[in-house]
C-alpha cells in the first residue's frame, strides 16, 4: 500500500471542497465555524446524490410503504374500514404513486435548499459547476456556461460520491429498466417489479414496492438475501418477504434485461427467464473519481477506482483529503459526514479521533428494519472475537405484543471475560432508533451491567435491550459467583 501523506499539521486559511454531499457540506460547516474561508463546488445541488436521488427520496418512499404496512395491519387491532380486495396482502388502501413521488422529490429539493441556505448563512461560498484538481492543491471549476474559474486553496477535500453501476446487457432507460436514481419517475405502482441485486438497496426497494402493492421478484446471487448482514437477521427478513409475497430467485445472476412490447424480460444465468412490467438494477455503485485530475496531483487510486485514504481522511497527496463514497469506506452518509469533519479537524491540527469503522451503526430500511453496530456474528463464529452472545426475540416483549410486532429480536455481543459490549443487532420496526443505546455502549466500551441497570420505560421495545443485557450478565460472572 502506498503510504498516505504524513505532512506536518497546518491551519489552512482557505479550503476548497469538491462535492456537496454529506462529506462535503458537513466539512464546509465545520470549517466555516472555525473561521476558515470555504468554497464548495457542486453541479447538482447541495446534498448531492444522498439528498437528491438516493438516501432522502428512497427512505421517504420506504416511509410511505411503512405507512401502508401499518394500514394493512390495522384490522388486527380491531380497526375496520373498506372491503378486503382480491389480493390477500392488501386492504382497500392504495398508493397514489404520482403523489408519492411528487412528495418525495419535493422533500429532497426542500432538504437541498435548506442545506444551501445553512451553508450561505455560515459564510460558505457556493459555486455551481464541476471541479477538477489543479496542482498543487487548487481547484479548476467548469461553470454551467462552459467558462472556467480557478479557486485557490490551501487544502482541498474531494467528496464526489458515487453513481449506480450498470451492466452492459441491462442498460437503464429510465422508463422500464431503472437504476435507483430513476425509480422516482414512475407515475403508477409497477405491476411486477423485478429487482436485480439482494444487497441493501435491492432488499429495501423490494420491501417497499411490495408494501405499496406491486408484485416483486428479487434476484439474489447468494443463498440468502442481504449476504453481508447478520444471518439471523437475514432469515427474519426472508420469512417476512415470504409472508407478504416477495418472490426470491436465489443463487442466480441476471445476464441481461431487455424491454418487451409492454414490459421487461430478465434472463438469469441459470437459464430462467423472468417477465415483469419493470426492472430495477441494484448491483452496486462506482466512485465518481474519473476526470478529477487526481493522478496529476499525486492522489493514489485503488484498483476499484476509489481514492485511497487513511483513518483521518488524508490522501497520498499533501493537503488533499477525501471523504464519502469516493473513498471506498462504508458507503453511508453518516460515514461520509464523519470523514469530512475528521478531515477539517486534522488539517487544523486539533485533537482528532480517527475513523473507526467497527463503531459505525448502520441500518437496512426494510420491513422490519435491521440495525447493526460493532462485532458481527460471523466474526465471532470465525474465532476473530471471543464473545458471549444473547439473542432475545421481541415476541416476549409486552410493547411488541401491543403493537402487533411478530418479527424481530435484540442480539448483544459481550467480550468474553470482561463483559464489555462489543456489538449488537436489532431487528424491529424503527431498529434505526433502537440501535443508538447499543452504539453508545460499543463506542464507550460499557459493561453489559451498565446497560442492564439503566432504567427503561415500561412497556417499551428498549426493555428488550436491557433484558438481553441482564441475561448476558449470567455469562460473564466469575466462576466463584456462579
From TrEMBL:
Describe how the cofactor binds: Binds 1 FAD per subunit.
Indicate yes or no for the key word Nucleotide-binding: yes
Q: Which Gene3D superfamilies match?
A: 3.30.390.30, FAD/NAD(P)-binding domain
Q: Which residues form the Pyridine nucleotide-disulphide oxidoreductase dimerisation domain?
A: 361-468
Occurrences of domain FAD/NAD(P)-binding (ranges): 14-340
InterPro entries in UniProt: FAD/NAD-bd_sf, FAD/NAD-binding_dom, FAD/NAD-linked_Rdtase_dimer_sf, Pyr_nuc-diS_OxRdtase, Pyr_nucl-diS_OxRdtase_dimer
Keyword Plastid recorded: no
A Pfam family that this protein carries is Pyr_redox_dim
Q: Which GO terms describe its molecular function?
A: flavin adenine dinucleotide binding; NAD(P)H dehydrogenase (quinone) activity
Mind telling me which PANTHER family this protein's record contains? MERCURIC REDUCTASE, NAD(P)H DEHYDROGENASE (QUINONE)
Can you name this protein? NAD(P)H-quinone dehydrogenase
Q: What is the lineage of its organism?
A: Bacteria, Bacillati, Actinomycetota, Actinomycetes, Micrococcales
Record-listed FAD binding positions: 59, 131, 325
Q: Where does NAD(+) bind?
A: 197-204, 284
What NCBIfam families does the record point to? PRK07845.1 (NF005883)
Sorted alphabetically, the keyword list is: FAD, Flavoprotein, NAD, Nucleotide-binding, Oxidoreductase
Q: Which cofactor does it need?
A: FAD
The family line of this record is: Belongs to the class-I pyridine nucleotide-disulfide oxidoreductase family.
